[in-house]
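Work Package 3 (structural annotation) set out to generate three-dimensional models for the target panel prioritized at the project kickoff. During this period the team completed the workflow that converts sequence records into discrete structure tokens, so that structures can be stored uniformly alongside our sequence database. As a representative example, we reproduce one entry of 304 residues exactly as it appears in the project archive.
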Amino acid sequence: MQILYKYRALSERTSEIIRRKKVWLAKPSSLNDPNECRFEPPDAAQVRKVVADVKSAQLAGFIADAALAQKYGRSFFTLRGRAINRLLSRIKKSSGLDKKHKVAQGFLKEVGTPGFSDPYDQPNSIDRIVERVGIFSLSEDPLNMLMWSHYGDSHKGVALGFAASAGSRLADAKYCRSVHYEDGAMAFDFSVGRLAGDAVIRNPDGTIRTEGYVQIDDRQIQNALFTKTTDWAYEKEWRYYEPTFGEYDHPGELAEVIFGLNMPLKEQEEFAFLCRESLGDSITFRCVTRPNGTQKLQLRDATV
């Protein structure tokens, strides 16, 4: 069973991870890599094509539903029979996609629906998606000198080892995977593998609207979530994410705690007591050592 490690300085927040059995999934913008989950601004011509495609799809669906209602003698919102024909005729006589779309949108608003989503929602949704994502970074390596220095309070902190056991978030490839390291800016290509949807949103004033979006399952969104530049390859990162940032249950059982090379024994004992008091006796405690005559870090069982 794989164990993934979260390097932490000793702090009240680290103690809360143990006491409350919760972890914080951070927004990409709050992380220390300015390139996290970042796409280059979309090409203007591509955006125009996306908008036209969305309008065409919305209009086609509207016309198809109205025509079926007329054919089988059903109501189409407030209209029946010849009234539906007149609406379809108005759309047909309007010149160009934009005017046809405007007629259909106007009708939907008149009958009290939220109407079509804004065709610009889909290209604009890319940034909204990645701004809302929550990320919890871990490493497969508990003996990384730089990780202990950067995230483990210069070797005075701990590495919390979460088990990727069956049924846990860490064992679910939908939510947790190893990070791929690659240089080069990412641009979203709307012509490839676009997964789009609509959601009904309630505004603060109580009114509702329809909002279009690119789904977080889109291959390109997923690629952005699990790709970093090669400068960070030393971290050997695995990443657990949720669609919304915030506090979540432990993504796997806390199976192991490793004490940093420079962590005093008294603090090791206090932290071990906290873990046992909060989580029971199933945790393995180890500590980092550096044998005489070497620069290499090693692990041994902790005496706590």
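The chain has a mean pLDDT of 91.
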